[in-house]
Amino acid sequence: MLNKFCKKPLYEVTRTMANVAMGVEKAEMVIRNAKLVNVCTAEIQEGIDVAITQGRIALVGDASHCIGDDTQIIDASGQYIAPGFMDAHIHVESAMITVGEYGRAVVPRGTTGIFMDPHEICNVCGPEGVKAMIDDGKRTPLKAMSNVPSCVPAVAGFEDTGSHIGPEEVREMMTWDGIMGLGEMMSFPNVLSAEPNIHGELAETLKADQVITGHFSIPDTAAGLNAYIASGVRCCHESTRAVDVLEKMRHGMYALMRYGSAWHDMPVIIRAILDNDVEDRFACLISDDTHPDTLISEGHMDHIIRCAVKEGLDPIKAIQYVTINPATCFRMDHEMGSITPGKCADIVFFDDLNDIRITRTIIDGDIVAENGKMVAELSEPDFPASVYDTMHVGETITADSFRIKAPDGKDTVSTRVIEIIPNHVGNYEKIMDLNVTDGFVEADPENDIMKMAVFERHHNTGTKGVGFVKGFGFKKGAMAQTVAHDAHNLLVAGTNDEDMALAANTLIECGGGLCAVADGKVLAIVPLPIAGLMNDLPAEEMADLVAKLDVAWKEMGCVINSPYMTMALIPLACLPELRLTNRGLVDCRTFSFADLFVE
Amino acid sequence: MLNKFCKKPLYEVTRTMANVAMGVEKAEMVIRNAKLVNVCTAEIQEGIDVAITQGRIALVGDASHCIGDDTQIIDASGQYIAPGFMDAHIHVESAMITVGEYGRAVVPRGTTGIFMDPHEICNVCGPEGVKAMIDDGKRTPLKAMSNVPSCVPAVAGFEDTGSHIGPEEVREMMTWDGIMGLGEMMSFPNVLSAEPNIHGELAETLKADQVITGHFSIPDTAAGLNAYIASGVRCCHESTRAVDVLEKMRHGMYALMRYGSAWHDMPVIIRAILDNDVEDRFACLISDDTHPDTLISEGHMDHIIRCAVKEGLDPIKAIQYVTINPATCFRMDHEMGSITPGKCADIVFFDDLNDIRITRTIIDGDIVAENGKMVAELSEPDFPASVYDTMHVGETITADSFRIKAPDGKDTVSTRVIEIIPNHVGNYEKIMDLNVTDGFVEADPENDIMKMAVFERHHNTGTKGVGFVKGFGFKKGAMAQTVAHDAHNLLVAGTNDEDMALAANTLIECGGGLCAVADGKVLAIVPLPIAGLMNDLPAEEMADLVAKLDVAWKEMGCVINSPYMTMALIPLACLPELRLTNRGLVDCRTFSFADLFVE
Lengths: 599, 599
Known about the structure:
- The structure is a homodimer.
- By secondary structure, chain A is of the alpha/beta class.
- Chain A has 18 helices and 30 strands.
- In chain A, the strands form 4 sheets. Chain A has a 10-stranded mixed sheet with strand order 18-21-20-19-23-22-25-24-26-27. In chain A, strands 1, 2, 3, 4, 5, 14, 15, 16 and 17 form a 9-stranded mixed sheet that branches.
- In chain A, strand 11, helix 9 and strand 12 form a beta-alpha-beta unit.
- In chain A, helix 3 packs across helix 4 and helix 5 runs parallel beside helix 7.
- The N and C termini of chain A lie far apart (58 Å).
- At the A-B interface, helix 1, strand 3, helix 7, helix 8 and helix 9 of A face helix 1, strand 2, strand 3, helix 7 and helix 8 of B.
């Protein structure tokens, strides 16, 4: 498809490219004497010059004749150059920062392009939110190429989101300039069952000559995987076993190997390539979800490359997995992904092939980052007002909002409790006897049981679900968040109704985010005023805010890692066993609503 | 780009694909227990089933559950299956048969797709001729995907053709259904010099999101090659040295290695891959030009694969070079080029990986050839009348038409003679003293000098060029042809004016072709009534006719191989040194017209 992400389309500048390569016109920039990581032939070439004009590469070889008085010369002696890194599957919202700030964080790390799937903001703000992300991406030299979110809501019928995506929205959005494909098709059961609406989305994507990206997360490499791929899905990042990767590649599907902040699949699944004598043109490395602190302390694709090399992967292959392979996956290899004539001049520099640390990033022929810092200027974010106005809870929340009436005349009541499993996405349904006080069922901090509520916050429906959760270890206080996947409703958990009300109202007031409350005081807050998902602060400051929240939670007695992540999954009604949405408890083994109390 | 060459677009049938893969609906065909040449991972997988429906592959693996009462089962035990072969650069006209008959010849050999560049018919009939070729291709299951010819005429200003292609024609034709890219850009000097008209064609192709195919035939891997690639050219079949292939691949250009009937570049240039430790995803094998007798006696891509394997190439790689690699070159790898779910079911069968002889060809899920014979029915050709009416010579040709008046009062005259070089495309300018008889310069068979004339035959301009040629060895008679590259005018050569007139009029009468005449009699004729380039006979019959012409030529004293090919190049005004077009002698070293007589 036509690339709208470079400084100028090639068709406008072919004559200039030819003239510069021939030396008739002079290059704007020449990189001299580099060690080129050639991802086309998988070799290192020494003593290579690169001539650049109009944001594109005019010549690779000896560029002496391309140099004029005004040519900027970069001496790359002793340095490697490689194509800029691309992340073929990433949710920017996971980092809780804007696309612009994401660019500021990752471009100095060598990332020059991302294929983002903004399905979080889409669940809150709909297509307008996707548009806002695409527009925000224009503030940064990072090529923020967007997919159309495919599964909004994630689990239709069991929750209420701010918006809805169907075949008609897909058809319309595929015509947008910033769009490159359909976002992760999480509704794989509906793909396999030939459900017409989901297949309508696939059809509209294929008609638009775009790429369908996948999410096939079950251990099936037979009928189901074939049905999924045969329906047109071109890539998938949900492999957890080496055999998943191997069979996806064998079936012509790009296997995107994930190494995110929380999900470290890559070391396991890369054995598919390291332990088998197979060609790997269908292999990519991706991040999926990255916390702001990971971006700051570890990096982005550079970090993932280093980790893959540590596992034993040849570094040239690792670089192919984040350059020419993802570019080919998205059928953009004629525009990006290699340092070859005509391509966008997206180039990174480093000194050690076995420990890649980026020292300079060039995008579209401009030096945009050096020595770990962005040198390109970013303009201020300019989101539409609507994305700052997303807290529409249909009731005034007080302590009474959290009272749960017991069945008449009982002292204890047999209750369905959600028991979390630390460091895992799944949970258990646990039947427990809870105490009744004055006719109401209460939290029981001594037995590590908190009360929990999910308020619909998009359309003032006033709907809410209530329940109990076990396993966080909180001794006091409450916490609340609006990240709560995938409907991003207002989730509150706590040991007492008063703190829960304060936590909820704190977030309603600041437009969403994460907070911790105890003894009637706000201990820490991470405001996420953009859709209740993001803040326009730099990644460093966001990482600091999250760290303070961590401290507060620990003080309150929390015993698990990344509690806000684990908490955020509690409403995600496509994971086993028991989930709580604004419509109530959902048994995800049977996909049916469950009563709070067991008769 | 959207594929219009399969039975049904994937977007119409995704639900059926899913249902068949899941076994909910049953497959139309299942291939069982094959040895799969997996071009994605470059390995052989044994015991593989393939389920097919709607012309596409639904499942690869164990297809037991896809089999129903009506499923056609093919037991492939002991047999290999591979994706159907594709030829990424081919001129059908070279074989002098129609696209339909070309399909009949090559499909049983395992060819399921060709990217044809019909620039010969375009020189004669213009875009309407290209359209006729595309339409004719629909008679055959062969996927005859067409490029838009880019260089019509081949050498503007020195010859007259039937038509002209410029940026506007390219823009218009890129919207046609059967089009996949721009044909070989032979005007590489104009690409390198940034000539606006040629770059206009490149720009229109890129704007249409299509692929530009190349023809870069000079030994330059530096500035010129970079300028050519930077202008957007994605592949090139004109490599004659191993370094050409290596540097093209390194620069991200698909290196199409040629093994045609007359041009055997592959054994030399494939050393680029065999002798270097480089990855080869940019390597392809192609035929360019194939004579009908080669198709019959040797084969097509199967023959080229066998030859490459003989040179030492791994057979799995050889198959990649004619399947997934060309598909990716044309950005159609999501539709064809591998046996993976969702792709068109274009599949070939064979028994021996090291001596590939195709036993069965499936296209779009239908068995179209078995045991070397097409089993699919071909409808009759239905060319528009205009392509049969292309002999428009603006004078009545008699013996007098060939008389060449000498300068007054001379007995001998110093003359520029074209001396051919057997088995090479180049020739020499030779200055010779020719005898004058009754005021006219005559042929001199005893010294192997024939008279030659080129008549414009498209627009009745009545223009002609005359000259002399040396080296064929003819003792008597005359020969004529309308293939004469690239303007395809009427070329006549002979030892006497009467036989030359008979040869010319014989072809005018039959609508063009090749013929041999001696002593006032037609000895042999290959009628090419379609544009003076093709006949709708099967390849076998065309090969027989050509063989009879060969015999006639030998009887007349001809001493060189493929005399009609060598003769056909005499008007091609982009090859050194001296050429004869309908406008006269052209010195191709200086690109200027030359006088016949030297003062």
